[in-house]
Design a protein that fits this description.
alpha/beta, two-stranded parallel ribbon, 6 strands, about 50% helix
Length: about 325
């Protein structure tokens, strides 16, 4: 038992313990099951974060379940009330007056007066609000804008009001809560969340624009964000290749990632492709604990502790089965 044997001080000795870094002191071994080995403060924070995630998700799921169950009793009535509220709140906007919102009393009337249109049909209203401050599309002033990539033309800035942002975050919370119900273990480790920045710039009216995924993710409590693998500043890197390399470098050094999420499935495909191209250099950098080679152009100069990083590197090398290793970035 503790204190009844001692290791030789003059030489290294294999004693059959798989984890050579496992603490051998009494109090250290007592504390190990309750957190990591990065110090008492870090272990306590991690334990608090893990507990908070589970409690908060269960509580939010309970509220969501009650609301969804009530709406499911008569979904058409719920949808009709929502439509009537939107029409009433926005009847005095430019768009509302032009389409006679104050004369619409049913979905059939709405469909007749407001034909289906694309963003370009709505762009003049959005620009009127941005450039002249008019209540053109929404009575409630936007607090920010969700910008698309603009891959098929000019960027599209979708106005986000305070009510709309609350609705987006409520939907996001409900989705995550039901994921937790299906697989609680996914939330027990580190979280690899990849989103675009919520703030990428400002428009002419001084209000920020950014991605919808970043806007939704911005509601995450700070303590829960400590479980995130990727710090927020990394997500603001403008060079997409450099950003993905940095995400990969941070991710493969973490053996405890249990949840991976992204707003776009192509992000995962891009990460897989890039890892296959750069796996040798990434694994080597993890093994060096962040000390990049002279030919590398690497933005991260610090890394997780050597022991878990080296284990992760060994596992990654052992599992490498395809792709061509590149010698430099």
């Amino acid at each position: 038992m503790f204190g009844t044997w001692y290791l030789p001080k003059d030489r290294a000795l294999e004693i059959g313990i798989m984890d050579r870094g496992y603490p051998k002191g009494f109090w250290a071994q007592m504390a190990t099951p309750f957190g990591g080995r990065g110090g008492r403060r870090r272990s306590f924070d991690r334990w608090i974060a893990d507990s908070l995630v589970a409690v908060q998700l269960r509580l939010v799921r309970w509220r969501c379940a009650r609301r969804i169950a009530a709406a499911a009793r008569d979904p058409m009535q719920v949808q009709t009330r929502l439509l009537q509220r939107i029409l009433r709140d926005n009847a005095k906007t430019n768009f509302g007056r032009e389409h006679g919102f104050d004369q619409i009393s049913s979905y059939a009337g709405f469909a007749q007066r407001v034909p289906v249109g694309d963003y370009e049909a709505r762009r003049p209203y959005v620009e009127a609000e941005i450039e002249r401050g008019e209540k053109a599309l929404t009575a409630q002033p936007p607090i920010q804008y969700a910008r698309t990539s603009g891959s098929t033309g000019k960027p599209k800035d979708v106005p986000i009001t305070a009510a709309y942002r609350r609705a987006l975050r409520r939907i996001h919370h409900a989705a995550v809560c039901y994921q937790h119900r299906s697989c609680p273990a996914a939330f027990e480790g580190a979280i690899l969340a990849i989103v675009s920045p919520a703030r990428e710039g400002e428009l002419a009216n001084g209000k920020p624009f950014g991605s919808a995924s970043g806007i939704v993710a911005g509601a995450t409590p700070e303590l829960i964000q400590e479980k995130f693998v990727v710090p927020a500043p990394v997500l603001t890197i403008s060079d997409s290749r450099l950003k993905y390399l940095t995400i990969l470098r941070l991710a493969i050094a973490r053996p405890d990632v249990s949840y991976l999420g992204s707003a776009n499935s192509t992000t995962m495909l891009a990460l897989i492709k890039l890892y296959r191209e750069q796996q040798a250099a990434l694994i080597d950098d993890v093994r060096r604990s962040g000390r990049a080679s002279a030919s590398a152009s690497w933005p991260i100069r610090s890394a997780p502790r050597r022991s878990p990083a080296c284990k992760r590197a060994a596992l990654s090398r052992a599992s490498r089965t395809c792709g061509r290793a590149c010698a430099s970035w």
